Amino acid sequence: MPSPLTHDRPARILVVDDDRTFILVVRKALEKADFIVTTCSSGEEALEVFSDCEPDLVLLDIQLPGIDGTEVCRELRRRMDDMSLPILLVTAGGDREAISRGYEAGATDFLAKPIDFELFAHRAHYLVKASRAMSELRYNRASLATAQRIARLGSYTYEVETRRMQWSNEIYSIFGIDAEGEETSRERFEAFVHPDDRGRVQQALDEVDRREKNFAIEHRLLLSSGDVRHVRHHAENIDDGRGHRIVTGVVQDTTDHARAMDQIRYLANFDGLTGLTNRRQFKSRLVDTLRHASNGDNLVAIMMVDVDRFRVINETLGHTAGDQILQVVADRVTGLVRNSDSVSRLEQSDFEPEIARIGGDEFTLLLPRIAHPTDAGRVAQRILESIPEPIDVDGQRVTLRASVGISIYPLDDVDAETLLRHADRAMKHAKGHGGNSFQYYTESLNETSLRRLQLESRLRDAVRNERLHLNYQPKVDLETGEVRGMEALLRWIDPELGFVSPDEFIPLAEEIGLISEIGRWVIAEACSQNKAWQDAGLRSVPVAVNVSSRQFRDSDLYHDVTEALATTGLDPRHLEIEVTESAMVDDERSTTDLLSRFRELGIRVALDDFGTGFSSLSYLRRLPLDTLKVDRAFVMDLPGDNDAEGIVGAIITMAHVLGLRVIAEGVETEEQRTFLRDISCDEMQGYLFSKPVSSEDFAAFLEPASS
Ligand code: C2E
Ligand code: MG
Ligand code: MG
Hints:
eight-stranded mixed β-barrel; binds ligand C2E; Beta-Lactamase; 26 strands; Rossmann fold; binds magnesium ion; 4 domains; Alpha-Beta Plaits; alpha/beta; five-stranded parallel beta sheet; single chain
């Protein structure tokens, strides 16, 4: 049977008859009617020419010498897989038995001689047309099925009322099951939908059932093999033409497509060698980050990391080794940045640092949220420390160095492209200075940052090795000149840096999270020293310790204090806590509660540095306080400065109204003392009486009055 692709050619007829005259007449008549005619005089010959001739119709005499027409017909049908080729058997008489055998052998119809050829030509045209239409339909069906198989496109229909479904072969194949014995219902269908998507699909199908809306969604399937497949799923509610509502749907398996898309996305955004983000993705992340940062007050650091003399390594060891080395570098930088406590402390989950490889040996880093430029320097420092770890490549030991450039948003610029350029400039600058170092784009940051980094590492060292100690400064009664108290003040003398002021290292300790540990030690040490003096028979005078606002937030201050009291056996009335107003800012309520609990134990509470902070009257009223310390900034200008005199006078009056004692800080001159005493200040603390001194020296202030 000719394929539908040849259907526009003239129709061919194969005529098989041993009657020469008949053949002549048939040929003439049919050729006149535009058929192409092939003739044979025996069944054997017919079978031989059949495939070459590709007839559209066969006219076959039933009585032939040798194989008869019925047998030829049977053989032709056997050779073809479809019934659409018309085979007409020609009989001389009305032999009924021969006719029924002929049908059984696959004949399409019978013609009785004599034949009216004009009429037959019409009939033949019609038969060819019908058979061609049939084979075209078959062909289309087959190619549709093939297309659906290739596209992994299955279809189903179900009646809304019964929910009984019909699935196309491809649906079974997508579900990975055999069509055999499968009960096909909507429920059964839904069972193949991934449990996480099932609710959504059910809801969509329900809406189609109710004719609310058709859908086109994407969801997953979970097959019994455990495989997860992605499908695109369309369904519509239609009328079957006889008043029944039918839902018909198409399910296309897009898993491979989705995988390909993932792959494409990956290739577009990631570096194939290291798996890190590539330049493109980094840029877009940077732009996003900067847009976010413009609403906040945090800084963003952009860092450029470049392996020193990488080209030489690449050329001497070869590119494969070079690639291996870059992978190691990528792993080190990633591990460090992702695990570094200094980074993770600063970063919240949606502020993850980003690391990219943007060129041969160039890596960039984005720290989306830092508090201080030094945070970036600290990360750079760690990178520089981690890179020189020797790497083994092909039995060779390679030791690398790197240079890092840093630019900071918004200090250096606000534009992504410019910040990247600045970081690059800074990196080249670091390289120009011999490499193995980091540089900020802004020159001034290099020094401050270096100092801070140095301080930080020395301070950690000092805490670890217990190299901090306390000095004590007396608080003196302005009326009697008696020592009424003392303030414990931290001292740090570093073997390398020398004396470092608490004004410099306390804020740093707060920032790097060391203050809780330091504060705990200060409280314990001050309590223990005070108790030791008492045990040595010296006068009992309370000790005040400074407590940073961070300690209220980050540590269990109540526990630290009560434990120190319990361990040393110090009477709580001999402990005073100095807080600043900043402790109130974070959470006034819980701070107030905690201070009240301290006071219930008998511990005294002083408000330090009054006048420099918010100096809010309402704090004074609400806070559970015993003492107010007037900041040195006001005392300095006494007497003589009208403003300072007025302010200090007002503070003292107000404090006394609230039942608080007042201590003036930083009293350095006799005039200041006289003035303060005259306006009824209670105590003073300052160089006039004594600087903060060591515990050994302080003992002299505590000699019993009688001696
Ligand atoms: P502060 O609590 O206001 O301590 C008083 C500061 O004034 C001390 O400085 C003290 O040495 C200084 N001072 C006292 N009298 C005079 C004077 O007559 N003239 C001058 N110019 N200064 C005087 P220091 O010891 O340098 O401490 C500075 C700050 O560091 C303290 O201010 C306090 O806020 C903080 N600090 C000190 N030790 C600790 C501590 O153990 N824990 C905490 N959290 N902070 C502490
Ligand atoms: Mg103080
Ligand atoms: Mg103070």
